[in-house]
Amino acid sequence: MFGIGMPELIIILVIVLIIFGAGKLPDIGAGMGKAIRNFKGATAEPEKKEPDKLEDKKESSNSDSAPPDK
Prior knowledge:
This protein is an all-alpha fold.
């Protein structure tokens, strides 16, 4: 996994703890969790909505091709 072992993860955690402090870590964790959740939702959204968009395009192209009434 990217060559990161347990000692490297502990060093990174200590550096983050020193920089942000213990009080900010829950806020940072919550923010990262929300970001990951939003990213997953955004990447899954096009797969769900793609057929709807295709149907909408077909309907709009059919209505556009009709001659205008005079």
